[in-house]
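Ticket reopened. Same input as before:
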Amino acid sequence: MKTKEELLKTQEYWFETIQNEIYRQLNEYMKVNNISRTKLAEEMKVSKGYITQILSGDFNCSLRKLIELSLFIKKAPIIEFKSLNSIISEYSSKVVVPYNSYNDKQVDPNAPSIAEIANKSFSIAYTTYSSVGNNDNKAA
Amino acid sequence: MNTFALQKIEEIAGRLEVFKLTENGKCEYDDFERGIEAEGTYISELTTIQVRLHEMAELKSLPETKFRDITPSKKEKVKEYEVKTKHLRVYLIHDVPNGRVIICAGKKTSQKKDIKHFREVKKRYLENKL
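Engineering reply: fixed in the latest deploy. New output:
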């Protein structure tokens, strides 16, 4: 089993985590706006199969498509390049907050998780997207 | 009587703890990883499986095509999960408080047989715990 530090050096790690983040962003948009795959496909003027592909965590399209999708869900796809070593050392000093079934259920679902607060100064996998404007998550 | 033990996977430092099950000192998941590495065809998929295990431990939501609940019925108290790639499968249960236990793993081609085996080992392990 590779350590997280070892995984951070693999293509598979970045491909997988970015794909999953795109899935989470689109999934969240659909939940917040109570919108079906069919309706989303119509609004985006794409095929239902394309939406299904993204929701299967299988987005491997062009950079232009990524930007198009991000702007549609009112998010900006921030791409930041950092030295791999600084990312690895960031991860090594990351605080792991164990899951607590009682405490974790008490928090506001919209509030950042305890782990996110503890690691707010770290960039790994938390800052792929930023909101655009004040009306984020509202259907276009 | 078989002796079961849980070995914490220290490489996964997430919010959930992840363990490997050993039976009489033998860990099926370790054998699976060694087999895939020796064979060489699915090394990239094995790395992807490991990334998915890390994301699962960090409580991040994953698409059903990558991680899914395979618990056969609602009556079943111990939840069953599958982490999958195109050709590989890893089978886990939610057991110890806030922890997941990898019971076994295999290829897609043998998934029917592997799930049957997974449930047999799970049953033996849980009975052994009582």
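Chain A touches chain B through 27 residues (CB under 8 Å). Residues 11-32 of chain A form the longest helix (22 residues). Please confirm and we'll close it.
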